[in-house]
Every structure is written in structure tokens, then in C-alpha cells.
Amino acid sequence: MDNRLGERFPIQLAIRLISTRPRTISIGQLKNLSRSGALILNGDVQLFSLIHVVLESPQQKDEETVAAYVTRVCDDCIGVEWCEFAPPAVVALLQTAIASSGGFAERQIDSEPPEMPSAAPLLEYVS
């Protein structure tokens, strides 16, 4: 069962990971991103550790740091959840990813509710 909050968007972005205990700095790559977390390739950190993900926006030369907890560790990747839901730096990256991929138009088409069957046949069994 998948408990993510929000849709994941593929993204390719080199990042730095700063672990608080032990104090280490490593390089990783964002593979996908959502308002609640991310999947990071080549992240060398421990499970349940508090880390700081240093993001560099392609449009801006500013670096922004987002605090996160490591929630999954696999052979070549880690899963993180942001300490704050939808941090501003992540929202800005998501908007860039959506605009460049045309994902917004696709999501609008897919977001139409599916046609629901009539409830009348169900009522026959109740009475």
C-alpha cells in the first residue's frame, strides 16, 4: 500500500545531502518529487536520520535547503519525507517540472471523475 501524499513527478536534479548524525555531506540525484517527499538516487545516509537536502534551482543560482527524514533505504536510493508539507523550494521545483513536461494539461484531462454506476440496482437488495 502506498501512503504518499501527492503525485510524484520525475525530475533529474543533482543535490547535496547533509546528514546531522554523523555529520556527513554526500551527493545525490532527485529521481522524483512530490509535495510530501522525494526519491533520491545515490543517497548515502542512514534510515530515520534527519537530513538537509540542498536544492539548486535551474532558473536561479540560489541554493535552498529543505529538512527531511529518511523513511526508506534501498540498495541504490533513499526515500525521504519533508519535515514541512510542501516546502516553498519544492513547490517551485514542482511548478518548473510540471510546466516543462506539459503535465498540467494531462492531469486536467485525467482528473475528470469516472462515470459512476447508478445506485438504483443497489437499492433493490436493501428493501
Task: Give a brief rundown of this model.
This protein is α+β, with helices and mostly antiparallel strands and 127 residues long.
In words, what does this structure look like?
The protein is an alpha+beta fold and 127 residues long. The protein has one domain: predicted glycosyltransferase like domains (Thrombin, subunit H, Beta Barrel). The protein is 23% helix and 39% strand. The protein is built from 3 helices and 6 strands. The protein has helices spanning 88-101, 103-110, 120-126; strands at 9-19, 24-33, 37-41, 50-56, 63-73, 77-82. A 6-stranded antiparallel beta barrel has the order 1-2-3-6-5-4. A hairpin with a 3-residue loop joins strand 2 and strand 3 (37-41). The longest helix has 14 residues, at 88-101. Residues 104-113 have low confidence and may be disordered.
